Amino acid sequence: MGRLPTLRLKNESNLMGKNDFSKDSRRFSQLEKYAQDLSNVYRSEREKSKKLETTYRQLEMYADDMNKTISELRDSNQELREAYLDTIHRLVLAAEYKDEDTGDHIIRMSHYSALIAEKLGLPAKEVQNIFYAAPMHDIGKIGIPDNILMKPGKLTDEEFTTMKNHSIIGANLLSYSKSEVLKLAEEIAISHHEKWNGKGYPQGLSGDKIPLSGRIVSLADVFDALTSKRPYKDPFPVEKAIDIIKQERGEHFDPDVVDVFLENIDEILKIKEEVVLA
User: Fold this and answer.
1) Is residue 162 domain-shared with residue 36, that is, in the same domain?
2) What's residue 278's pLDDT?
3) I need a surface site. Which of 100, 140, 158, 192 has the fewest CB within 10 A?
């Protein structure tokens, strides 16, 4: 009778050992599973990393190709712009080929016009369009007889009336174009001889009714004409030309355009010195 408790304790001890072993086995199985999962995750991430590296290298190659393409397009566009501007200059020279200073004049006044437009705060695209369109302001002179165009002296009233027609002729030559530049050139051709006080031609417009492009080109054109040799006059000194422009502020010229011109006179004079016909 006294041995039964002892046997029961031994059995209990055996059961506890088996239970502990079973628990340890389950733990090992779970750890093995975790280890396998971690290994799978590692392999998966490693594959992703390789793919990312490959993708990154491909993107680098695409970026290099893109940069080369952009550079080539930029060069091509620059060549196209230069060819376009050169064509404009040659067409204008065809209209006024007997005036030796015409080539220098159209280049200088287009630079003056672009500078004034920029300093007035116009968007870069409009500044560029004015730069391209300004040289065509007097293209209508192709329709003016040489004896008037090249007369070495003051024009008669009748001759001056004929000369004034160049604004209308130029606008007609440039009309009905879909090009932004040529539309602007038409606007400039018809308006660059209008005056702020309404006493200009051909429409007698005044103040803000005159397109801003015409007001800008008007001042640029007059300044360069005053300081350049013409068949009917020698060039004026810069100081005298500036005095004339100051006197015509609010009369011939838009006061704001004059103010911007005078505020940037150093840059204007730099253009005058540096821009020559190549």
Assistant:
1) no
2) 41
3) 158
pTM, 2 dp: 0.69
State the CATH number of the domain containing residue 172. 1.10.3210.10
Task: List, in order, residues 6 or more apart from 140 with CB less than 8 Å away.
Answer: 95, 165, 166, 167, 168, 169, 170, 171, 172, 173, 189
Scored b (16 or more CB within 10 A) or e, 199-210 reads ebbeeebeeeeb
Residue 1 confidence class, pLDDT cut points 50, 70, 90: very low
Contacts of 123 (CB under 8 A, 6+ apart): none
The closest of 202, 266, 235 to 105, measured between CA atoms, is 235
Burial of 215 (0-12, 13-18, 19+ CB in 10 A): buried
Number of domains in the chain: 2
- pLDDT, tens digit, 9 for 90 and up, residues 154-173: 899 999 999 999 999 999 98
Residue 51 is predicted with a pLDDT of: 66
